[in-house]
Protein backbone atom coordinates (compact mmCIF):
# COMPACT_ATOMS: atom_id res chain seq x y z
CA UNK A 1 0.00 0.00 0.00
CA UNK A 2 1.44 3.31 -1.06
CA UNK A 3 1.33 6.37 1.15
CA UNK A 4 2.61 8.54 -1.67
CA UNK A 5 2.77 8.10 -5.39
CA UNK A 6 4.24 10.78 -7.64
CA UNK A 7 4.41 10.36 -11.41
CA UNK A 8 6.03 12.84 -13.81
CA UNK A 9 5.37 15.83 -11.59
CA UNK A 10 5.95 19.26 -13.11
CA UNK A 11 5.74 22.74 -11.63
CA UNK A 12 7.03 26.03 -13.02
CA UNK A 13 7.18 29.54 -11.65
CA UNK A 14 7.28 31.69 -14.74
CA UNK A 15 10.35 30.52 -16.65
CA UNK A 16 11.80 28.60 -13.72
CA UNK A 17 11.07 24.89 -14.02
CA UNK A 18 11.08 24.24 -10.27
CA UNK A 19 10.01 20.59 -10.44
CA UNK A 20 10.81 18.77 -13.66
CA UNK A 21 9.53 15.25 -14.28
CA UNK A 22 9.83 13.94 -10.73
CA UNK A 23 8.51 10.46 -9.91
CA UNK A 24 8.76 8.38 -6.75
CA UNK A 25 6.70 6.13 -4.51
CA UNK A 26 6.66 5.83 -0.73
CA UNK A 27 5.19 2.76 0.96
CA UNK A 28 3.20 3.07 4.15
CA UNK A 29 5.27 3.05 7.32
CA UNK A 30 8.42 4.11 5.48
CA UNK A 31 10.73 6.93 6.51
CA UNK A 32 11.49 8.72 3.27
CA UNK A 33 13.98 11.55 2.83
CA UNK A 34 13.82 14.18 0.13
CA UNK A 35 17.26 15.75 -0.20
CA UNK A 36 18.81 18.48 -2.29
CA UNK A 37 20.40 21.91 -2.10
CA UNK A 38 18.26 24.97 -1.43
CA UNK A 39 16.18 25.76 -4.49
CA UNK A 40 16.29 22.18 -5.77
CA UNK A 41 12.51 21.84 -5.67
CA UNK A 42 12.08 20.02 -2.34
CA UNK A 43 9.72 22.52 -0.75
CA UNK A 44 7.72 22.93 -3.94
CA UNK A 45 7.30 19.15 -4.19
CA UNK A 46 6.29 18.87 -0.54
CA UNK A 47 3.83 21.76 -0.79
CA UNK A 48 2.19 20.07 -3.79
CA UNK A 49 1.90 16.85 -1.76
CA UNK A 50 0.36 18.81 1.12
CA UNK A 51 -2.20 20.26 -1.27
CA UNK A 52 -0.95 23.78 -0.71
CA UNK A 53 0.35 24.34 -4.24
CA UNK A 54 -1.17 23.33 -7.55
CA UNK A 55 0.88 21.16 -9.86
CA UNK A 56 1.20 21.94 -13.56
CA UNK A 57 1.32 18.35 -14.75
CA UNK A 58 1.73 14.77 -13.58
CA UNK A 59 -0.16 12.49 -11.24
CA UNK A 60 0.01 12.66 -7.47
CA UNK A 61 -1.70 10.44 -4.89
CA UNK A 62 -1.41 11.06 -1.18
CA UNK A 63 -2.97 8.30 0.98
CA UNK A 64 -4.76 7.31 -2.20
CA UNK A 65 -6.32 10.69 -3.04
CA UNK A 66 -5.33 13.62 -5.23
CA UNK A 67 -4.18 16.44 -2.93
CA UNK A 68 -5.24 18.97 -5.59
CA UNK A 69 -8.88 17.80 -5.36
CA UNK A 70 -10.59 20.38 -3.17
CA UNK A 71 -13.41 18.06 -2.17
CA UNK A 72 -10.86 15.66 -0.61
CA UNK A 73 -8.74 18.28 1.12
CA UNK A 74 -10.46 18.24 4.46
CA UNK A 75 -10.36 14.45 4.57
CA UNK A 76 -6.71 14.48 3.64
CA UNK A 77 -5.71 17.21 6.06
CA UNK A 78 -7.20 15.34 8.97
CA UNK A 79 -4.83 12.47 8.14
CA UNK A 80 -1.57 14.27 7.49
CA UNK A 81 0.67 16.21 9.84
CA UNK A 82 2.96 19.00 8.74
CA UNK A 83 5.99 20.52 10.45
CA UNK A 84 7.12 23.57 8.52
CA UNK A 85 10.59 25.11 8.64
CA UNK A 86 9.65 28.45 10.10
CA UNK A 87 8.13 28.67 13.55
CA UNK A 88 4.45 29.56 13.36
CA UNK A 89 2.78 29.48 16.74
CA UNK A 90 0.91 32.28 18.51
CA UNK A 91 3.48 33.58 21.01
CA UNK A 92 0.91 34.57 23.64
CA UNK A 93 -0.66 31.11 24.09
CA UNK A 94 0.79 28.43 26.35
CA UNK A 95 2.06 25.12 25.00
CA UNK A 96 -1.04 23.36 26.30
CA UNK A 97 -3.46 25.95 24.87
CA UNK A 98 -2.00 25.70 21.37
CA UNK A 99 -2.04 21.92 21.41
CA UNK A 100 -5.60 21.82 22.78
CA UNK A 101 -6.78 24.22 20.12
CA UNK A 102 -5.23 22.25 17.27
CA UNK A 103 -6.41 18.93 18.73
CA UNK A 104 -9.94 20.28 18.30
CA UNK A 105 -9.49 20.44 14.53
CA UNK A 106 -9.01 16.69 14.09
CA UNK A 107 -11.54 13.86 14.21
CA UNK A 108 -9.29 11.50 16.20
CA UNK A 109 -6.50 13.50 17.85
CA UNK A 110 -3.85 12.21 20.19
CA UNK A 111 -4.24 13.19 23.82
CA UNK A 112 -2.66 16.59 24.49
CA UNK A 113 -1.04 15.24 27.63
CA UNK A 114 0.63 12.40 25.70
CA UNK A 115 1.94 14.73 23.00
CA UNK A 116 3.44 17.07 25.61
CA UNK A 117 5.29 14.07 27.05
CA UNK A 118 6.31 12.73 23.63
CA UNK A 119 8.03 15.99 22.68
CA UNK A 120 9.51 16.42 26.16
CA UNK A 121 7.76 19.64 27.15
CA UNK A 122 6.10 18.46 30.36
CA UNK A 123 7.87 21.11 32.46
CA UNK A 124 6.93 23.82 29.94
CA UNK A 125 3.30 22.82 29.38
CA UNK A 126 1.85 25.97 30.93
CA UNK A 127 4.55 28.36 29.75
CA UNK A 128 3.81 30.87 27.01
CA UNK A 129 5.26 30.03 23.62
CA UNK A 130 7.31 33.25 23.53
CA UNK A 131 9.14 32.16 26.72
CA UNK A 132 10.35 28.90 25.13
CA UNK A 133 13.88 28.48 23.78
CA UNK A 134 14.33 27.97 20.04
CA UNK A 135 14.73 24.23 20.51
CA UNK A 136 11.63 23.97 22.70
CA UNK A 137 9.60 25.88 20.14
CA UNK A 138 10.83 23.49 17.47
CA UNK A 139 9.66 20.56 19.61
CA UNK A 140 6.26 22.22 20.04
CA UNK A 141 6.13 22.50 16.25
CA UNK A 142 6.66 18.75 16.01
CA UNK A 143 3.98 18.26 18.67
CA UNK A 144 1.55 20.26 16.52
CA UNK A 145 2.51 18.07 13.56
CA UNK A 146 1.51 14.87 15.37
CA UNK A 147 -1.43 16.09 17.49
CA UNK A 148 -3.93 14.92 14.87
CA UNK A 149 -2.51 11.38 15.00
CA UNK A 150 -1.52 11.53 11.31
CA UNK A 151 -1.01 8.56 9.02
CA UNK A 152 1.52 10.62 7.08
CA UNK A 153 3.86 13.19 8.59
CA UNK A 154 5.84 15.80 6.66
CA UNK A 155 8.91 17.04 8.52
CA UNK A 156 10.80 19.93 6.97
CA UNK A 157 14.24 20.04 8.61
CA UNK A 158 12.86 18.92 11.97
CA UNK A 159 16.09 19.18 13.97
CA UNK A 160 17.58 22.42 12.64
CA UNK A 161 18.46 24.52 15.69
CA UNK A 162 18.15 21.68 18.20
CA UNK A 163 20.93 20.78 20.64
CA UNK A 164 22.35 17.24 20.31
CA UNK A 165 20.22 15.81 23.12
CA UNK A 166 16.99 17.24 21.71
CA UNK A 167 18.04 16.01 18.28
CA UNK A 168 18.45 12.44 19.53
CA UNK A 169 15.08 12.73 21.26
CA UNK A 170 13.46 13.83 18.02
CA UNK A 171 15.07 10.92 16.20
CA UNK A 172 13.70 8.51 18.80
CA UNK A 173 10.27 10.07 18.38
CA UNK A 174 10.41 9.70 14.59
CA UNK A 175 11.50 6.06 14.96
CA UNK A 176 8.68 5.41 17.42
CA UNK A 177 6.11 6.99 15.08
CA UNK A 178 7.44 4.95 12.20
CA UNK A 179 7.25 1.71 14.16
CA UNK A 180 3.60 2.51 14.94
CA UNK A 181 3.00 2.67 11.18
CA UNK A 182 3.18 6.41 10.53
CA UNK A 183 4.76 7.25 7.19
CA UNK A 184 7.36 10.01 7.51
CA UNK A 185 8.53 12.30 4.72
CA UNK A 186 11.66 14.09 5.83
CA UNK A 187 13.80 16.84 4.42
CA UNK A 188 17.11 17.58 6.05
CA UNK A 189 20.55 19.03 5.47
CA UNK A 190 22.11 16.67 8.04
CA UNK A 191 23.31 13.49 6.37
CA UNK A 192 23.84 11.71 9.69
CA UNK A 193 20.17 12.31 10.39
CA UNK A 194 19.16 10.91 7.02
CA UNK A 195 21.40 7.89 7.56
CA UNK A 196 19.99 7.31 11.05
CA UNK A 197 16.34 7.61 10.06
CA UNK A 198 15.58 7.22 6.38
CA UNK A 199 15.00 3.94 4.63
CA UNK A 200 14.66 5.51 1.19
CA UNK A 201 16.16 8.64 -0.27
CA UNK A 202 15.57 10.81 -3.31
CA UNK A 203 18.11 13.49 -4.19
CA UNK A 204 16.77 16.45 -6.16
CA UNK A 205 18.87 19.00 -7.99
CA UNK A 206 17.45 21.79 -10.08
CA UNK A 207 14.02 20.21 -10.02
CA UNK A 208 15.17 16.82 -11.31
CA UNK A 209 15.89 13.54 -9.58
CA UNK A 210 19.68 13.09 -9.35
CA UNK A 211 19.62 9.76 -7.51
CA UNK A 212 17.35 7.41 -5.61
CA UNK A 213 18.12 4.54 -3.28
CA UNK A 214 18.71 3.58 0.30
CA UNK A 215 21.14 5.69 2.36
CA UNK A 216 23.69 2.85 2.30
CA UNK A 217 23.58 2.31 -1.46
CA UNK A 218 22.92 5.81 -2.76
CA UNK A 219 25.08 6.77 -5.73
CA UNK A 220 26.86 3.39 -5.72
CA UNK A 221 28.13 4.07 -2.24
CA UNK A 222 28.15 0.36 -1.36
CA UNK A 223 30.25 -0.53 -4.41
CA UNK A 224 32.68 2.29 -5.09
CA UNK A 225 35.83 3.49 -3.65
CA UNK A 226 37.04 2.65 -0.14
CA UNK A 227 39.72 4.12 2.11
CA UNK A 228 41.82 1.55 4.06
CA UNK A 229 44.08 2.97 6.75
CA UNK A 230 46.19 1.90 9.73
CA UNK A 231 49.07 3.09 11.90
CA UNK A 232 52.54 2.09 10.64
CA UNK A 233 54.05 -0.70 12.74
CA UNK A 234 57.31 0.25 14.49
CA UNK A 235 60.50 -0.37 12.60
CA UNK A 236 58.77 -0.65 9.22
CA UNK A 237 59.41 1.83 6.43
CA UNK A 238 56.74 2.82 3.92
CA UNK A 239 58.89 1.22 1.21
CA UNK A 240 58.56 -2.16 2.98
CA UNK A 241 54.77 -2.24 2.54
CA UNK A 242 53.40 -4.63 -0.14
CA UNK A 243 51.10 -1.94 -1.56
CA UNK A 244 52.02 1.66 -2.26
CA UNK A 245 49.90 3.90 -0.03
CA UNK A 246 48.08 6.87 -1.52
CA UNK A 247 48.97 9.16 1.32
CA UNK A 248 50.49 9.27 4.76
CA UNK A 249 49.83 11.53 7.62
CA UNK A 250 52.29 11.16 10.48
CA UNK A 251 52.36 7.46 11.29
CA UNK A 252 49.01 6.83 9.59
CA UNK A 253 48.96 5.43 6.05
CA UNK A 254 45.97 5.35 3.75
CA UNK A 255 45.12 3.31 0.64
CA UNK A 256 42.32 4.57 -1.61
CA UNK A 257 41.02 1.76 -3.79
CA UNK A 258 37.98 0.29 -5.42
CA UNK A 259 39.50 -3.22 -5.10
CA UNK A 260 39.36 -3.34 -1.34
CA UNK A 261 39.40 -7.16 -1.00
CA UNK A 262 42.62 -7.52 -2.97
CA UNK A 263 44.41 -4.70 -1.14
CA UNK A 264 43.21 -5.90 2.26
CA UNK A 265 44.27 -9.45 1.54
CA UNK A 266 47.78 -8.40 0.47
CA UNK A 267 48.20 -6.15 3.50
CA UNK A 268 46.92 -8.67 6.07
CA UNK A 269 48.88 -11.60 4.61
CA UNK A 270 51.99 -9.48 4.64
CA UNK A 271 51.36 -8.44 8.28
CA UNK A 272 50.83 -12.08 9.34
CA UNK A 273 54.01 -13.19 7.59
CA UNK A 274 56.03 -10.33 9.10
CA UNK A 275 54.35 -10.83 12.51
CA UNK A 276 53.52 -7.11 12.79
CA UNK A 277 50.17 -5.65 13.78
CA UNK A 278 48.19 -3.11 11.76
CA UNK A 279 47.05 -0.92 14.65
CA UNK A 280 43.77 0.92 14.17
CA UNK A 281 43.01 -0.85 10.87
CA UNK A 282 39.93 0.72 9.37
CA UNK A 283 37.97 0.33 6.12
CA UNK A 284 35.93 3.43 5.31
CA UNK A 285 33.32 3.75 2.65
CA UNK A 286 32.38 7.22 1.44
CA UNK A 287 30.07 8.91 3.86
CA UNK A 288 26.55 9.73 2.76
CA UNK A 289 27.63 13.34 2.80
CA UNK A 290 30.49 12.61 0.34
CA UNK A 291 28.04 10.93 -2.00
CA UNK A 292 25.46 13.67 -1.59
CA UNK A 293 27.99 16.41 -2.33
CA UNK A 294 29.28 14.54 -5.37
CA UNK A 295 25.76 13.97 -6.73
CA UNK A 296 24.61 17.55 -6.24
CA UNK A 297 27.88 18.93 -7.58
CA UNK A 298 27.77 16.71 -10.68
CA UNK A 299 24.24 17.79 -11.40
CA UNK A 300 25.16 21.44 -11.08
CA UNK A 301 28.22 21.26 -13.35
CA UNK A 302 26.58 19.03 -15.98
CA UNK A 303 23.53 21.24 -16.26
CA UNK A 304 25.82 24.26 -16.54
CA UNK A 305 27.47 22.63 -19.53
CA UNK A 306 24.12 21.96 -21.13
CA UNK A 307 23.16 25.57 -20.70
CA UNK A 308 26.37 27.10 -22.05
CA UNK B 1 -3.72 -2.53 5.60
CA UNK B 2 -7.14 -1.96 4.11
CA UNK B 3 -7.91 0.73 1.61
CA UNK B 4 -9.94 3.44 3.29
CA UNK B 5 -12.17 5.26 0.88
CA UNK B 6 -12.42 8.99 1.54
CA UNK B 7 -15.66 9.43 3.40
CA UNK B 8 -17.11 12.47 5.05
CA UNK B 9 -16.12 12.30 8.68
CA UNK B 10 -17.64 15.63 9.61
CA UNK B 11 -21.26 16.41 10.41
CA UNK B 12 -23.21 19.64 10.76
CA UNK B 13 -23.11 19.27 14.52
CA UNK B 14 -19.41 18.64 14.36
CA UNK B 15 -19.00 21.72 12.19
CA UNK B 16 -20.89 23.89 14.67
CA UNK B 17 -18.76 22.54 17.48
CA UNK B 18 -15.67 23.30 15.40
CA UNK B 19 -16.75 26.93 14.90
CA UNK B 20 -17.52 27.28 18.62
CA UNK B 21 -14.11 25.80 19.43
CA UNK B 22 -12.35 28.26 17.12
CA UNK B 23 -14.38 31.25 18.40
CA UNK B 24 -13.24 30.37 21.93
CA UNK B 25 -9.60 30.57 20.90
CA UNK B 26 -10.13 33.71 18.80
CA UNK B 27 -11.65 35.28 21.91
CA UNK B 28 -8.78 34.09 24.12
CA UNK B 29 -6.28 35.53 21.66
CA UNK B 30 -8.13 38.86 21.61
CA UNK B 31 -8.35 39.31 25.35
CA UNK B 32 -4.77 38.11 25.98
CA UNK B 33 -3.53 40.79 23.58
CA UNK B 34 -4.10 43.88 25.64
CA UNK B 35 -3.45 46.18 22.67
CA UNK B 36 -6.52 44.96 20.83
CA UNK B 37 -8.80 45.34 23.83
CA UNK B 38 -7.31 48.77 24.54
CA UNK B 39 -7.67 49.99 20.97
CA UNK B 40 -11.35 49.07 20.66
CA UNK B 41 -13.06 49.13 24.03
CA UNK B 42 -10.48 51.15 25.98
CA UNK B 43 -10.23 53.96 23.42
CA UNK B 44 -13.95 54.36 22.93
CA UNK B 45 -14.49 54.61 26.69
CA UNK B 46 -11.58 57.04 27.15
CA UNK B 47 -12.74 59.25 24.26
CA UNK B 48 -16.26 59.31 25.57
CA UNK B 49 -15.18 60.18 29.11
CA UNK B 50 -12.66 62.79 27.95
CA UNK B 51 -14.99 64.56 25.54
CA UNK B 52 -17.87 64.23 27.98
CA UNK B 53 -15.77 65.93 30.66
CA UNK B 54 -14.74 68.82 28.38
CA UNK B 55 -17.93 69.87 26.69
CA UNK B 56 -20.48 67.14 27.26
CA UNK B 57 -23.37 69.28 28.36
CA UNK B 58 -23.07 71.87 25.59
CA UNK B 59 -25.77 71.63 22.99
CA UNK B 60 -25.41 71.45 19.21
CA UNK B 61 -27.62 74.09 17.63
CA UNK B 62 -27.74 72.57 14.15
CA UNK B 63 -28.62 69.10 15.52
CA UNK B 64 -31.85 69.97 17.27
CA UNK B 65 -30.03 71.16 20.40
CA UNK B 66 -29.02 67.67 21.53
CA UNK B 67 -26.10 67.63 23.97
CA UNK B 68 -22.58 66.60 23.01
CA UNK B 69 -22.96 63.55 25.27
CA UNK B 70 -25.98 62.45 23.29
CA UNK B 71 -23.94 62.95 20.15
CA UNK B 72 -20.87 61.06 21.37
CA UNK B 73 -22.43 57.88 22.80
CA UNK B 74 -23.70 56.48 19.48
CA UNK B 75 -20.62 57.92 17.76
CA UNK B 76 -18.18 55.98 19.91
CA UNK B 77 -20.26 52.84 19.69
CA UNK B 78 -19.82 53.15 15.94
CA UNK B 79 -16.13 53.91 16.43
CA UNK B 80 -15.66 50.76 18.54
CA UNK B 81 -17.28 48.60 15.91
CA UNK B 82 -15.16 50.06 13.14
CA UNK B 83 -12.02 49.76 15.27
CA UNK B 84 -12.71 46.11 16.07
CA UNK B 85 -13.94 45.01 12.65
CA UNK B 86 -11.82 47.12 10.38
CA UNK B 87 -8.69 48.40 12.03
CA UNK B 88 -7.88 45.62 14.52
CA UNK B 89 -8.98 42.84 12.23
CA UNK B 90 -6.85 44.13 9.37
CA UNK B 91 -3.61 44.25 11.32
CA UNK B 92 -4.47 40.97 13.03
CA UNK B 93 -5.00 39.18 9.71
CA UNK B 94 -1.91 40.69 8.08
CA UNK B 95 0.31 39.72 10.98
CA UNK B 96 -1.17 36.22 11.13
CA UNK B 97 -0.60 35.81 7.42
CA UNK B 98 2.92 37.24 7.33
CA UNK B 99 4.14 35.20 10.32
CA UNK B 100 2.84 32.04 8.66
CA UNK B 101 0.04 31.39 11.16
CA UNK B 102 -2.63 31.35 8.46
CA UNK B 103 -0.57 29.00 6.33
CA UNK B 104 -0.19 26.64 9.23
CA UNK B 105 -3.95 26.73 9.89
CA UNK B 106 -4.52 26.02 6.21
CA UNK B 107 -2.60 22.76 6.63
CA UNK B 108 -4.95 21.57 9.39
CA UNK B 109 -8.42 20.21 8.66
CA UNK B 110 -10.02 23.48 9.87
CA UNK B 111 -11.90 24.63 6.74
CA UNK B 112 -11.45 28.18 5.45
CA UNK B 113 -15.13 29.00 5.92
CA UNK B 114 -14.98 27.86 9.55
CA UNK B 115 -11.98 30.08 10.23
CA UNK B 116 -13.54 33.14 8.57
CA UNK B 117 -16.89 32.57 10.28
CA UNK B 118 -15.13 32.27 13.63
CA UNK B 119 -13.16 35.45 13.03
CA UNK B 120 -16.40 37.25 12.13
CA UNK B 121 -18.26 35.94 15.19
CA UNK B 122 -15.37 36.74 17.48
CA UNK B 123 -15.10 40.33 16.22
CA UNK B 124 -18.87 40.62 16.56
CA UNK B 125 -18.65 39.58 20.21
CA UNK B 126 -16.02 42.25 20.88
CA UNK B 127 -18.07 44.87 19.05
CA UNK B 128 -21.24 44.01 20.96
CA UNK B 129 -19.44 43.98 24.32
CA UNK B 130 -18.05 47.45 23.72
CA UNK B 131 -21.45 48.72 22.54
CA UNK B 132 -23.00 47.45 25.78
CA UNK B 133 -20.25 49.04 27.88
CA UNK B 134 -20.74 52.42 26.18
CA UNK B 135 -24.52 52.28 26.47
CA UNK B 136 -24.24 51.63 30.21
CA UNK B 137 -21.63 54.36 30.77
CA UNK B 138 -23.69 56.79 28.66
CA UNK B 139 -26.90 55.98 30.48
CA UNK B 140 -25.64 56.06 34.05
CA UNK B 141 -22.66 58.42 33.69
CA UNK B 142 -24.13 61.04 31.39
CA UNK B 143 -27.85 60.40 31.39
CA UNK B 144 -27.97 59.52 27.67
CA UNK B 145 -31.08 57.44 27.06
CA UNK B 146 -30.87 53.92 25.61
CA UNK B 147 -31.94 53.44 21.97
CA UNK B 148 -35.72 53.66 21.70
CA UNK B 149 -35.87 51.14 18.89
CA UNK B 150 -33.75 48.18 20.04
CA UNK B 151 -34.45 46.08 16.99
CA UNK B 152 -33.27 48.84 14.66
CA UNK B 153 -30.20 49.33 16.85
CA UNK B 154 -29.32 45.63 16.65
CA UNK B 155 -29.88 45.46 12.89
CA UNK B 156 -27.62 48.47 12.39
CA UNK B 157 -24.89 46.90 14.53
CA UNK B 158 -25.05 43.55 12.74
CA UNK B 159 -24.99 45.16 9.27
CA UNK B 160 -22.09 47.36 10.38
CA UNK B 161 -20.14 44.48 11.85
CA UNK B 162 -20.59 42.41 8.69
CA UNK B 163 -19.65 45.24 6.33
CA UNK B 164 -16.65 46.53 8.22
CA UNK B 165 -15.40 42.97 8.74
CA UNK B 166 -15.59 42.44 4.98
CA UNK B 167 -13.72 45.71 4.45
CA UNK B 168 -11.08 44.66 7.00
CA UNK B 169 -10.54 41.31 5.27
CA UNK B 170 -10.42 43.00 1.85
CA UNK B 171 -7.86 45.61 2.95
CA UNK B 172 -5.74 42.97 4.70
CA UNK B 173 -5.51 41.02 1.44
CA UNK B 174 -4.11 44.05 -0.38
CA UNK B 175 -1.60 45.14 2.30
CA UNK B 176 1.76 43.46 1.62
CA UNK B 177 3.35 43.38 5.09
CA UNK B 178 3.05 44.06 8.78
CA UNK B 179 5.13 47.22 8.61
CA UNK B 180 2.58 48.76 6.25
CA UNK B 181 -0.52 47.39 7.96
CA UNK B 182 -0.40 49.56 11.10
CA UNK B 183 0.25 52.97 9.49
CA UNK B 184 -1.99 52.44 6.44
CA UNK B 185 -5.04 51.33 8.38
CA UNK B 186 -4.56 53.76 11.28
CA UNK B 187 -4.05 56.79 9.06
CA UNK B 188 -6.87 55.90 6.67
CA UNK B 189 -9.13 55.05 9.58
CA UNK B 190 -8.49 58.13 11.73
CA UNK B 191 -8.58 60.58 8.84
CA UNK B 192 -11.92 59.18 7.74
CA UNK B 193 -13.23 59.24 11.29
CA UNK B 194 -12.15 62.86 11.64
CA UNK B 195 -13.67 63.92 8.35
CA UNK B 196 -16.85 62.02 9.07
CA UNK B 197 -17.62 63.94 12.23
CA UNK B 198 -16.78 61.53 15.00
CA UNK B 199 -15.05 64.08 17.24
CA UNK B 200 -17.09 67.11 16.29
CA UNK B 201 -20.44 67.31 14.56
CA UNK B 202 -20.27 68.34 10.90
CA UNK B 203 -22.30 71.45 10.11
CA UNK B 204 -25.00 70.60 7.55
CA UNK B 205 -24.18 71.31 3.87
CA UNK B 206 -20.50 71.96 4.67
CA UNK B 207 -17.80 70.82 2.25
CA UNK B 208 -16.69 68.15 4.70
CA UNK B 209 -20.15 66.75 4.97
CA UNK B 210 -20.39 66.44 1.20
CA UNK B 211 -16.94 64.85 0.99
CA UNK B 212 -17.65 62.32 3.72
CA UNK B 213 -20.90 61.13 2.14
CA UNK B 214 -18.81 59.06 -0.28
CA UNK B 215 -17.40 56.94 2.51
CA UNK B 216 -19.19 54.44 4.74
CA UNK B 217 -17.95 55.89 8.03
CA UNK B 218 -20.26 58.89 8.16
CA UNK B 219 -23.26 56.84 7.10
CA UNK B 220 -22.53 54.28 9.77
CA UNK B 221 -22.25 57.02 12.42
CA UNK B 222 -25.64 58.33 11.33
CA UNK B 223 -27.12 54.83 11.23
CA UNK B 224 -26.04 53.99 14.79
CA UNK B 225 -27.50 57.32 15.99
CA UNK B 226 -30.92 56.87 14.34
CA UNK B 227 -32.43 54.23 16.68
CA UNK B 228 -31.81 56.57 19.64
CA UNK B 229 -34.44 58.89 18.10
CA UNK B 230 -32.81 61.92 19.64
CA UNK B 231 -34.35 64.37 17.19
CA UNK B 232 -38.10 64.76 17.25
CA UNK B 233 -39.71 63.30 14.16
CA UNK B 234 -36.61 61.41 13.00
CA UNK B 235 -36.86 57.79 11.86
CA UNK B 236 -35.37 54.94 13.87
CA UNK B 237 -34.66 52.96 10.68
CA UNK B 238 -31.80 54.61 8.74
CA UNK B 239 -32.39 52.77 5.45
CA UNK B 240 -30.38 55.08 3.22
CA UNK B 241 -27.31 55.13 5.46
CA UNK B 242 -27.50 51.38 5.91
CA UNK B 243 -27.73 50.90 2.15
CA UNK B 244 -24.49 52.84 1.58
CA UNK B 245 -22.72 50.82 4.28
CA UNK B 246 -24.07 47.60 2.78
CA UNK B 247 -22.88 48.50 -0.73
CA UNK B 248 -19.37 49.11 0.58
CA UNK B 249 -19.62 45.80 2.44
CA UNK B 250 -20.72 43.82 -0.59
CA UNK B 251 -17.97 45.26 -2.79
CA UNK B 252 -15.45 44.56 -0.02
CA UNK B 253 -16.70 40.99 0.43
CA UNK B 254 -16.25 40.43 -3.29
CA UNK B 255 -12.66 41.70 -3.17
CA UNK B 256 -11.99 39.77 0.05
CA UNK B 257 -13.07 36.45 -1.46
CA UNK B 258 -11.06 36.98 -4.62
CA UNK B 259 -7.86 38.31 -3.10
CA UNK B 260 -7.64 36.43 0.18
CA UNK B 261 -4.26 34.75 0.61
CA UNK B 262 -2.89 32.32 3.16
CA UNK B 263 0.86 32.48 2.54
CA UNK B 264 3.22 35.22 3.59
CA UNK B 265 4.44 37.48 0.77
CA UNK B 266 8.09 36.67 1.44
CA UNK B 267 8.89 33.30 -0.23
What is the class of the largest domain in chain A in the CATH system?
Alpha Beta
Quaternary structure type: heterodimer
Q: What is the makeup of the main sheet of chain B? A: 2 strands, antiparallel
Mean pLDDT of chain A, as a whole number?
Answer: 88
Q: In angstroms, what separates the terminal alpha carbons of chain A?
A: 44 Å
Q: Number of helical runs of chain B?
A: 10
Radius of gyration of chain B: 20 Å
Strand content of chain A: 25-35%
**Adjacency order of strands in the biggest sheet of chain B:** 1-2
CATH superfamily of the largest domain in chain A: P-loop containing nucleotide triphosphate hydrolases
Shape of chain B: globular
Read across the widest sheet of chain A, the strand sequence of neighbours is 5-6-7-3-8-9
* Total helical segments of chain A: 9
What would you say about this model in short?
The complex is a heterodimer of chains A (308) and B (267). Chain A is an alpha/beta fold.
Describe this structure in words.
Chain A has 308 residues and is of the alpha/beta class. Chain A folds into 2 domains: 2-214, P-loop containing nucleotide triphosphate hydrolases (Rossmann fold), CATH 3.40.50.300; 225-285. In chain A, 33% of the residues lie in helices and 27% in strands. Chain A contains 9 helices and 13 strands. Chain A has helices at residues 42-49, 70-77, 95-103, 112-118, 134-146, 164-179, 191-197, 260-274, 288-307, and strands spanning 2-13, 16-27, 31-35, 57-62, 80-83, 152-156, 183-187, 200-205, 208-213, 226-231, 247-249, 252-257, 279-285. In chain A, strands 5-6-7-3-8-9 form a 6-stranded mixed beta sheet. Chain A has a 4-stranded antiparallel beta sheet with strand order 11-12-10-13, with helices on one face. In chain A, α3 crosses α4. The longest helix of chain A is centred in the last third of the chain and has 20 residues, at 288-307. Chain A is globular, with a radius of gyration of 24 Å. Residues 304-308 of chain A have low confidence and may be disordered. In chain B, β1 (59-60) and β2 form a beta hairpin. In chain B, α5 packs across α6 (150-174). Chain B has a two-stranded antiparallel ribbon. With 267 residues, chain B is an all-alpha fold. Chain B has one domain (18-259). The model of chain B is unreliable at 1-6 (pLDDT under 50). Chain B has helices at residues 12-32, 34-55, 68-98, 101-106, 112-142, 150-174, 178-195, 207-212, 216-225, 239-259; strands spanning 59-60, 66-67. The relative contact order of chain B is 0.14. Chain B is built from 10 helices and 2 strands, in the order ααββαααααααα. The A-B interface holds A 1, 28, 50, 52, 64-65, 72, 74-78, 80, 82, 84, 86-90, 92-93, 97, 101-102, 104-107, 144, 148, 181 and B 1, 3-4, 6-10, 18, 21-22, 25, 28-29, 32-33, 99-101, 103-104, 106-111, 263.
Amino acid sequence: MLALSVKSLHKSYGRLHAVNDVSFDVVRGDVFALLGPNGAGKSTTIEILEGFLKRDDGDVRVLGVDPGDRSKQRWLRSRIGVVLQELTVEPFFTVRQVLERNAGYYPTPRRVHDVIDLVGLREKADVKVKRLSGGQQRRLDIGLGIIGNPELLFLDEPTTGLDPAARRMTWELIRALSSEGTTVVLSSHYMDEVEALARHVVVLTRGRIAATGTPSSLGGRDLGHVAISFTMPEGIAVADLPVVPSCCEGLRVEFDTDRELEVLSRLTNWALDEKVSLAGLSVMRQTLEDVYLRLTHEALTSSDEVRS
Amino acid sequence: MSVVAPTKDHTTRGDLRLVAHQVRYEQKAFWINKTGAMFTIGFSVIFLVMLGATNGTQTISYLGNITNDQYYVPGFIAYGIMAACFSMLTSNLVSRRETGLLKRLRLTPLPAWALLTSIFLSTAIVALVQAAVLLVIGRFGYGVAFPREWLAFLVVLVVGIACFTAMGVAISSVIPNQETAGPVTSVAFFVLLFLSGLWFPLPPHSGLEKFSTFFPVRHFLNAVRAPFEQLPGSSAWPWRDLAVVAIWGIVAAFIALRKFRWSPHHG
